[in-house]
Amino acid sequence: MTLFGAIQKYIDVKRAHGVLFEKGAKDLRAFLSKVGDVPLDRIRPAQVLDYLNGPRTSTGTWRKKFSLLEDFFEHWAAQGLLEASPMPRNRPPVPVTFVPYVYTRNEMRLLLRATSEWQNSSWQNQKMCRMDSATFRIFLLTLYATGMRTGEALSLTQKDVDLTKGVISIRGGRFRRSRKIPIGPDLCSRLRQHKRRLAKAPGDSPYFFVGRDGKALNENSLRVAFRRLRLLAGIQRYDGAIYQPRMDDLRATFAVTRLTSWIREGADLNRLIPALSAYMGLCGLGSTERYLKLTPDRFRKQLATLSPERRKRHWRDDPALMRFLAGL
């Protein structure tokens, strides 16, 4: 079988299993263009490397294309058309250097206070943002108090927010996983005030957070507005990081604030961290674990010592780590 026929049949198999596979098909055809329609069993590692080492190819892109070709050749090897995969050695992954920003309580007060100044500033008069300061404030407060993703909060409808029971229903979040989260009385009280203002909004939009025109807020415009609000509040990071504090970092702030509080109280983290993971709609406990590394320095050093990067066991399976946490 030639490479052209193998690629076409592989794409058909993927799509028959419900995979869209548009990007994968495009990359495989680019590989065909580079190598030519040669017999499948004549392809050598040097030819694969020649394709992967294309101009201006980042390590991340290189590894994605490598994974695609690896799966492609393994498929045909399993079908008996190849004795061995012609794949070269993979590049090592790029170390993850991005670290979310954790807002202090004082910085949160500055942000929320700046929403009033933001309304009176010239920024608010720009057409790209249709939101009043009260809506902006309660939106940020909701992210900070619940750890919701920005998209999840923007997708909330009025029916999703049950202020009688104190429960918010989050539907179709990341990985299409819906969940219900309880909220405290303070946030309930603020959301009731927002709902009364919402009743006076024009139109009949079902969304819980809307602009002055009664229509759903635009996520990109909201992020631009937040960057301007952050500058107005005078908040920036000085740790050499590429990214300045973002609106999405309110989610990390919620997690770290909760974890820090539990650590100081000596709470049972083995029981509470899985609950936090479910509350935040995380796919697994590994995502929650990374927030432990963002807790204050006096905890971080011990955690790093007791839970090195072994990648073999989960931190909950480390007796020394759990004894340390339980003894705080």
Short description:
The chain is mostly helical and 328 residues long.
Explain what the structure shows:
With 328 residues, this protein is mostly helical. It has 3 domains: 3-78; 105-233, hpI Integrase, Chain A (Orthogonal Bundle), CATH 1.10.443.10; 249-326, no CATH class. It is 53% helix and 3% strand. It is built from 14 helices and 3 strands. The protein has helices at 3-16, 22-35, 45-52, 59-78, 105-120, 133-146, 150-154, 185-198, 219-233, 249-265, 269-279, 285-292, 297-306, 319-326; strands at residues 161-162, 167-170, 179-182. Strands 1-2-3 form a 3-stranded antiparallel sheet, with no helix packed on it. Strand 2 and strand 3 (179-182) form a beta hairpin. Helix 1 packs antiparallel against helix 2 (22-35), helix 6 runs antiparallel to helix 8 and helix 6 crosses helix 10. The chain is elongated. It starts with a helix and ends with a helix.
The end-to-end span amounts to 64 Å
Strand content: under 5%
Largest β sheet strand count, sense and barrel closure: 3 strands, antiparallel
Strand order of the largest sheet: 1-2-3
Question: What is the architecture of the largest domain at the second tier of CATH?
Answer: Orthogonal Bundle
Q: What gyration radius follows from the Cα positions, in whole Å?
A: 25 Å
**Uncertain stretches of 5 or more adjacent residues:** 306-312
Number of strands: 3
How many alpha or pi helices? 14
Structural domain count: 3
What structural class should be given to the helix and strand makeup? mainly alpha
**What is the CATH first-level class name of the largest domain?**
Mainly Alpha
* SSE order, one letter for each helix or strand: HHHHHHHEEEHHHHHHH
Q: According to CATH, what is the topology of the largest domain? A: hpI Integrase, Chain A
Write down the overall geometry.
Answer: elongated
Question: How much helical structure, as a percent, in the residues?
Answer: 40-55%
